[in-house]
Amino acid sequence: MALLRHLIMLRPVNHVHLDFHTSEQIDDIGKDFDALEFINTLKTIDVDSVTTFAKCHHGNLYYYTDLPEQHPFLEKNLLLEQYQITQANNIQMPVYISVGFDERQAYEHPEWIAIDTSGRQIKEFGDQPFDSGWHWLCLNNGYQQKIVEVINDVIQRIGAVDGFFFDIVTQPECCCPNCKKAMLAAGMDPTAASERYRFARQVEANFKELVYQTIRSQLPQATVFFNGLVWQHLTELSIPNYTHLEVESLASGIWGYEHYPLLIKYLQNGPLDTIAMTARFHKSWADFGGYKNPAALEYEVVRSILSGSTISIGDQLHPNGKLDNKAYELMAAPFTLVKKYWQTTRTSRDVCDIAIYLDNRYEDSNLFSAAVAGAAKIMQESHLLYDIIDASADLSNYKLVIFPDHIHADENLAAKIAAYKAVGGKILASYQSLNESTHLLPLADIKPSNFEQDYVDISATHYICYQAGMLASPALGADCQHPIWEPYFNRSYRHFSSHFQTPEKAANGYFDWLADDASVYLAHAYFSLYYRNGNHIYKECVQQAVRQLITPTLAVVGLPTTAALGLRQAAQAEACIITLTNYVPLKKGDVYTIEDIPVLHDVQISFNDRTIRGVDVVDAQTQATFDGDQLQLDNIHGHALVTVFFNS
Ligand SMILES: [Zn+2]
């Protein structure tokens, strides 16, 4: 055990990901790189690990080599100098190799470029021949060996590097001649999208296995990570080829502020440690001269460390090899917080009352449906403790399992839910979820509505539902509430009334809310509806169902909707950790960012009769007092990290 703790302490915590995609039309590459200046900048802000570049998206190599892809204007043996100085200073250095994008190989081997279903080359950032952007390379060809050649060359010329970061490892659903031929040989139908998706995942998995074995046979301790669009769908095939996960999620970029919290809730149940990756840029990668607001960077870093991840902050090295001092000044304060907070969070685990069930079998790079994202949003805004799970989870770890909107129960899932209910588990299902298994819900029969929209009568107010609910007949003895009203007609060119949806005409005899002691069924797709529209009443319906079914571990007063509350079990049995963030993203043009850090006062959290013995405020500003089972928090500057000790 002592040895294990020692190893955990050695795990790098503060990472920098140093991009270096540099055109071969720029000269003097690395001319001003100064190894001492480089390492001093990193050491000053307490960096433990820096990812540096062997091969970039342009296909250029940044070390002296006999391979023809060395950058034509490389002035220094950059990667080797970076390796030697980081090794000498006990900073880890994984090496970056671009896979899916390689402009040099795209021009030398146009037959390796992935082809879409219309026969066009697949490109990122524009699909026209004269758009500037990256061609996407197919992995089902000789390009795999080119990657292996670069890995071997790096190990031979640079040394026993600490790890490898492979980027853009996403095989498109490619229609190139190689892929069509290989699919036919495997008995697959290249014209079927689902078959192409399945084949692409297999090509990816084979590539990862080849690369992993290439590295493992030479460097048994090296870390290996493959970044890509669909790595979240980790299968049994590919998990053994990862040593950890790096969750790329730049809140001000295409990922947005909602991406990381969803993904980490799902990934925290897996076997691998996570590194949360953002960047110092105002917008997204390669935003030279664009600096993230300090409050925005603080939020992304703090929410990551409070969720049990370590942190990677991205930057891009200037072609001349000099680090941008402003960027490292910006990273200094967040990295200090990370080192301080990691001592508290590293051995803790998330405590969750409620599980949101996710069906990860969909053949879609977007793992999270609007229903799952909407459920998570409602849970977070309601300050309920939630998790996101899939079919592999043990339901008995949760007081309540939510099946949002579209979860179809096969025989295995239905049996699992029945067993869970038999030992006291509670379920909340909505809309089409579990419709095949009405015996699990207080339903006798169910069918779809003929209307596109309808209304729900709650306390004599008729609320619009922008997507009509199911027509559910209750089981004997079910509690039925909230009658459904139908409109005069569906809106069409033949009959419409006013600007928008048609007003309600009459109740149709069905109810939105059907409940018994162990389950609530809501006839509307409230989770997707809330995600897409935000009507407060949708959230209230879900909150009412949760309140009816369970007593949450925490009762909270005084937190705004924007605050995210978490509870983590500390290493000591009689202690837990309250995590809280409250930062408010603002839209500026096309960019979301954060400028100010609001201060919260008078937040009360009670622990349902667990008597508090003491508190330890880990962050620098929150003030905490307690009385019995009540914790009072004041002066919360954006976030709080408080360990609470209970009487046994
Ligand atoms: Zn292909």
Automatic annotation (TrEMBL):
Domain Beta-galactosidase trimerisation: 380-434
GO biological process: carbohydrate metabolic process
A GO molecular-function descriptor: beta-galactosidase activity
Protein name: Beta-galactosidase trimerisation domain-containing protein
Species name: Culicoidibacter larvae
Higher taxonomy: Bacteria, Bacillati, Bacillota, Culicoidibacteria, Culicoidibacterales
